[in-house]
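## tool: complex_structure
## caller: assistant
## args:
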Amino acid sequence: MHPRDRTINEGPEYVVQTTDFLIVFLYNVKRKLLKEETMPEKYTEISKAIVDGEDVMAANLVKEALAEGLPPLDILNQGVVAGITKTGELWKANEYFLPDVILSADAFKAAMIPLEPKLKEGAQGKKAHKFVIGVVQGDMHNLGKSLVMALLQSAGFEVIDLGIDVPKEKFIAAVREYKPAILGLGAYMSTTMLEMKDVVAELKKQGLRDGLKVMVGGVPTSQEFADEVGADAWGKDAMVSVEKALKMVGGKNG
Ligand code: B12
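## result:
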């Protein structure tokens, strides 16, 4: 067919297609504009401060965001988590090296200081289920755990933090002492993740596994791995971890 005849022979269809395209195009422009409007610039600034490793700036921006009345959970997800996630991507792409990542991690921690009490506020006055959490022996990564803790607290859990590089004996002692509803184990390296298996086995050996839920998480873990070590659940990210934890305690705290 000659191109000149195209609009004649395919007239109505062609017009409909063009109109459809225009509608979709305008709809996308509107969505983009709306998104930019509803996404306060503060979140981008917080995220950038974390990526750049500017700890004082990151903490100040979070304080400003809170003073402006922005929701703490949105500051966490759209500012702080977005920043540290970007750092992780830059590291993966070999654009960031260890010193950059350390600076970024420090900025992340600084940003969490003013945010954590605000996240906890929503949970006050509730009868909390206990969640003991720790990073397994040999592993010093703690950013992922901090995020999970912040969201668990905001969902009303009483979180007992055993810290990083935790030997299995300490996990066992904490389960005896606090009698938590859930024990959370974090591991971030393929070399340390097998520690989780030992902790679960020791819990069983000491008769502490019944009535206790075990949840695992961290970069190299997966649902398959969680099943393999005998955990009850895998926390893919902080949000999913909290959703699963709430489900395990019957839906809510308080
Ligand atoms: C930041 C970082 C560091 C920082 C840690 C700072 C800190 N205070 O934590 C520093 C620079 C100190 C560091 C050191 C090292 N690191 Co490092 N590090 C990273 C990096 C870039 C990001 C990790 C991170 O914090 N991510 C952001 C958080 C928010 O995400 P996340 O951890 O996945 O957590 C989420 C989920 O997993 C889940 N979750 C996390 N924890 C838990 C716990 C529970 C209970 C649940 C339910 C869920 C859950 O929820 C979280 C939030 O959504 C990763 C690369 C990567 N792509 O992950 C490497 C990485 C983990 N590191 C790695 C290595 C090798 C090291 C070093 C050995 C490097 C070295 N040569 O010295 C040392 C190890 C020291 C030690 N013994 O632990 C490797 C591990 C490789 C492996 N073998 O598996 C990685 C994967 C990088 C790589 N691709 O090579 N690291």
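## assistant note: The chain has a mean pLDDT of 84. The chain is about 60% helix and 10% strand. Handing back to user.
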